[in-house]
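User: Show me a protein chain along with its predicted structure.
Assistant: Here is one chain, sequence first, then structure tokens.
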Amino acid sequence: MQEFAVTSAAPNPDDLLVLLAVSRTGRFTSAAESLGLNHTTVSRRIAALEKTLAGRVLSRTVGGWETTELGRRAVLAAEAVESAIADLRGTPENARQLSGVVRMSATDGFSAYIATPAITALQRKYPQLRVEILTVTRRAMQHRSGLDIEVVVGAPQVHRAEAVKLGEYVLGMYASRDYLAQFGTPADAAELMTHPLVYFIDSMLQVDDLDAPRRLVPTMRESISSTNVFVHVEATRAGSGIGFLPCFMADRHADLVRLLPDEFAEQLPYWMVLRTESLRQPAVAAVADALRDRTLASAAALLGLST
């Protein structure tokens, strides 16, 4: 283990700003790109800061770099430096706060129909704001380096993070009109289970809450399976079988018919997870608020109640 000599020297503000960039991206390379530096310079700045502070400010995790307790204290100081520099430059407060890059992950459907319109509306007001969206269906990560916001299905079990319930959505059974014309409309659950199912790949499903078909219709044979919910929708529209689909996605298509809604209406929650240090960034807080507002405004569609 590397040892550090105790020093009374004040940390270099440039070193603090480099640490701030690494804490937001979780990676030296991403931080270097955002600062216009190279990877070696970022590494050297972090080493200099750790020598000055006589301790580690970053620790390596599976997902990248996370700040230590000392590092989190240094990040607070770095944010004060960043704010002071912006004030000296005479940057208008709102324009300064809502600029830069916010990185988030969410499921495919949420990303397309909730996050994208919410962020687009926010960017019309703050054109310097950039948002990067990783589409993925998984549990909340324990180490979320490089991500400011995660939107997941099901209540997350996380540490050193804020978890907020956004709302709920419903999945139902759907088939195309052409499919029903050819194979008949199931009158009850027993008849429905004689048809092939379009849904997630069972062996690759990472979210326990999405395992409803194994419980509700255990005898349905699989048709087309995919990790992408847009494939589920299009496979159902193409007549591959009966799809277990989010209502807010399926109801957009007039060629899809919802089947047995009183028997098949699986209601699941969307949760938002935010890194504690990211939440202090006004841009991240604004995106989080926009996601929350858009989810609330879309409640009827999410629950399959829109007409």
